[in-house]
Amino acid sequence: MAGESLRExxxxxxxxxxxxxxxAGRNGREITLVAVSKTQPAEAILAAFEAGVRxxxxxxxxxxxxxxxxxxxxxxxxxxxxxxxxNKAARAAGLxxxxxxxxxxxxxxxxxxxxxxxxxREKLRLLIEVHIAEEATKxxxxxxxxxxxxEAIAGLEHLNLAGLMCVPPxxxxxxxxxxxxxxxxxxxxxxxxxxxxxxxxxxxGMSHDFEVAIEEGATEVRIGTALFGARQWK
Length: 234
Ligand SMILES: *Cc1c(COP(=O)(O)O)cnc(C)c1O
Fold this sequence. Notes:
This protein is α/β, with parallel strands linked by helices. It has helices at residues 3-23, 42-50, 61-67, 89-95, 105-117, 146-154, 178-195, 210-215, 225-228, and strands spanning 32-36, 55-58, 77-80, 98-102, 124-131, 141-142, 159-165, 201-203, 220-223. Strand 2 (55-58), helix 3 (61-67) and strand 3 form a beta-alpha-beta unit. Helix 4 (89-95) packs across helix 5 (105-117). It is globular and about 45 Å long.
């Protein structure tokens, strides 16, 4: 995709973010755009960076390892947004600033240990991915386990547990996904109350439903196709 149409897409997305934030009595500047660049080449990431994007999301460790060379040194934050298997945790801990899809304690423990061994002074940011829709067979921690999991992860020295994330089911009509976004915010509020953890980040909303997510409290939206166009499967 040419840099020009990417810029146009980005401008439109920003306008829509601002408008959705205003509808909710919020400010668009509070909302972080995470550009999900899975299947896109490094050139697309570079073009988005040049257009002002500073957060990028990838869903597979291996894909990111293979293509990060030309962009690894950009002053951007790299997020893993896809499911992470424990056996890839050590690699992921060295490749990303944030794991947005952590869903169990064993995985968090491995990330913590890997970060300790790297002697990194910066903590690895973590979000707990929540299995917010019982009917969908998606990954994520079960709702009932989130309070305990959050407390346990918060005790790990090299991690910064910043909040919650979800990938609800896809609906043609984005209004139908609203209850799931609301449920994630309410879960965050209740976990925060019972554990005393701040958990300021809510990562929810994708290309077709990010406005609803923002109206329900999203602080980060993960946007792929609306920014980069169709995915470039090989
Ligand atoms: C691919 C992906 C996105 C972006 O999806 P789009 O519909 O292209 O915006 C967001 N979050 C996760 C976890 C993804 O895997």
